[in-house]
Structures are given as C-alpha cells and as structure tokens.
Specification:
The protein has five helices and eight strands, in the order ββαβββαβααββα. It is an alpha+beta fold.
C-alpha cells in the first residue's frame, strides 16, 4: 500500500502539509480490521516506511501486507474491503496493489487419496498423523489450485516459524524422514503393474 501526501515544514507551515505517514496509520488500522480469523483470514502489516524527516509532513509512505485466506471467496471479500478504505485527509492519495502471489491451498476430492497414503504411512510408523489447514503458503498452493494432488508440511517440526526464536526439534527429524519414505513407498505400492 502506498500513500502520497504533500510535503511541508511541520513547524513553519503545518496546515500546508498532508502527511502520508499519518494517513498510512489510518490505512493500517482499517486494514487490520479486514481480518476475520473465524474464517481463517489474517491480515498482517509487516513492513512500514515513509517520510524524509521529523520536521516534514511526509510526502510518501508504504506498507507491505501479508494476507492469508482459506478460499477464493475470501480473496474477493478482502479485495473489496481494501478498495473501500478511505482517508480523512482528501489531499492524500492511496494506492493498493492487489497482488495475490499464491492461491489458497484447499483440500479437494482429488487430493484425498494422496492424503490417505500419508495418514496410512503415519499409522504404519505408530503415530496418528492428522490433516490440518494453516495460514502457511508454499509452491504446493499452485499445484493444488490446478487440481493436482499434493501434500505440504512433511518437513521439520518446530516452533516460532519465521520469528527470531524459531527452532526445529532435532528428535523429530527421524520420524519426518521415515514418514516421507513410507509415503513414497505407499505410492509405489499403489501403482498398477
């Protein structure tokens, strides 16, 4: 998101300026309100920058937003909600780049047989593996969107994803490796001929 205001000296001529940073604060508050965790939609403004000095009404501000949704209908709702954001200072312009970089990964019927192989592999190894849907994203999203069976999330187990305190549990690596191998073996066993 980008806001474009009017630069002016904050002390000498405060009324001549229209702060893009102040406007971005309004935008961020409205953007955060678009989230609806009850349907799996999260909105996170992760990067914000703007202005040229503390004594200048900012001429430009930018904010990068991460949005996670569970289905195409939510993508449309979120786009409409962002398009409806309004600023209190009409002199500031707002531009929202509606750039979805991945479709949501939705479990569809063609994926169930592959998921069943993963679940069976887990049982074979003595663990109850469960399907879950999270707000993550990977290249598997592209594959699922065209109806090709795919699973995601067979990598390392840990906590604190992408945070400074992120870590993996080394004692889980053998199981995850065995689960992947058992899944591949289950797929090979299921092939005709």
């Amino acid at each position: 998101m980008t806001t474009t205001g009017i630069e002016a000296h904050a002390g000498l001529d405060p009324l001549a300026g229209a702060s893009a940073v102040h406007a971005m604060a309004e935008v961020i508050t409205q953007a955060a309100g678009i989230a609806d965790l009850s349907v799996g939609t999260s909105v996170n403004v992760g990067l914000v920058s703007g202005g040229s000095g503390t004594n200048v009404a900012a001429g430009k501000a930018t904010a990068s937003v991460d949005i996670r949704v569970t289905g195409p209908q939510e993508m449309a709702r979120v786009d409409r909600a962002f398009a409806a954001i309004r600023l209190s200072d009409e002199r500031v312009q707002l531009h929202v780049d509606h750039n979805w970089n991945r479709p949501p990964m939705v479990l569809h019927a063609t994926m169930q047989p592959l998921l069943d192989v993963v679940l069976a592999a887990g049982r074979e190894l003595g663990r109850q593996v469960e399907h879950t849907s999270v707000g993550g994203a990977s290249d598997a999203n592209f594959i699922a969107a065209v109806g090709v069976p795919v699973v995601c999330g067979l990598g390392a187990v840990g906590h604190g994803a992408h945070a400074r305190h992120e870590y993996i549990l080394p004692n889980e690596i053998p199981f995850q490796t065995a689960l992947t191998a058992a899944t591949l073996a289950g797929l090979v066993d299921g092939l005709p001929g």
